[in-house]
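Friendly challenge for the regulars: who can give me the structure tokens for this chain first? No prize, just bragging rights.
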Amino acid sequence: MYGPGHPEAERRQLTVLWCREALLPATTTRLDPEDLHQILQSVQQTAETIIEEMTKMLLESDLMATVPGNQGGHPPALAIPATLHDSLMARLDRHGIGKLVAQLGATLGREFSYDMLQAISPLEEPALRQGLAQLVQAEIIYQRGLPPHAQYTFKHALIQETAYQSLLRHNRQQYHSQIAHLLEERWPDTCTSQPEILAHHYTEASLTTTALAYWQRAGQHALARSAHLEAIAHVRRGLALAATLPPTLERARHELALCPILGVALMATQGYAAPEVEQTYLQAQACCQQVGDMAQLFTTQVEASLSLSRQHALPLFVALGTVFQGGLQAIYTRTSIGVESIRQGIDAYRATGAELFRPYFLGLLAEAYGHIGQSQAGLQVLDEALSQMETTGEYLHASEIYRRRGELLPPGEEAEACFQQALATARAQEARALELRAAVCLSRFWQRQGKLPWLTDKTYQI
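First reply, four minutes later:
Bragging rights claimed.
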């Protein structure tokens, strides 16, 4: 191989560039120029590997030996492998113990360390070092440093793949399982910083449930670094793996955990209106329906929007997401967590200089107080909302403020008056959904009081 600056390396690079420029006019609608460049480089590397392998085969055969009496005659027949795979396999077979070492290394990846290889190898250390020396001498792998701190790299991905595919399926699964468990026990930092490595090994070990958990972590980790394309790749691997499971609730739960991550990454790369974004959230909705937890869908959507807003440093949308997240927490957890989240969101919202919709947010906060039994605190918040409406003239959500006030007040004339006012306000605004909501609350109030005048009074019909 030629290093940077070598005339042959520069010639090969120019060849790739020439081919790319020649092909671009025919591929502009199908391939990105950089993708095309990578494809051509890969093809060139493959061609070079074929030539190198054939050359090595000739050197290692009897054809290059001096044969008395054969000068100027026809060379003996050479058994040329039908494929590059056959040629590479033949090379590995000639190295005995080195073949096993290559198989172990290929299971670890294109690059691997001595300490990790030693940890999974059934060989004694002298035999392991002998096998590595054979592979280095044959230029199947390159070595950097000395054992036990050495690092190794397969010369070409095709060599790694050939060594890997030569393993029996059962042995491959066993090695992958062993690698994954070793990483968790001896290199826990890898589990945190590169969960996709664990996900890969558990996937190849056919330990599906654990693999899915790591694909989810890999997607989340990539999102946290705004590596959206990586996140998409990791989650798609996870979803493809989940698709191999029977159509059970367990599968739906796994898909539900993965879809929001994919949705966020797709929105960041393709936009909110992209068809694939819609398909992803439709899949999440179907999973929610299957597990009987539609609340999870709303929570998922809010969390996805909140995550995207944080990644792109959008303080206004982060504040809005925090408010809505708190509202969901208040409904489904019935704890003070929801109250705290809504308050935090409102404070962040006002910190941006925004005031519009503040009465609505205060209404959500009052409702959250009601869920944890703090009606008086909720009523004080609604007083603040009413004052805000009077100051700004923003009566868009007045009906909801009156309705929530009626819900928090003790049963009596004042509560009934609030429901009546909520109903009248919604009618005046021609807000049919809010009118229906107020009418339902008023009818329930009357039902608890033992009177149902709305049955005969048409003024309460919607």
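The chain has a mean pLDDT of 82. The first helix runs from residue 7 to 27. Your move, everyone else.
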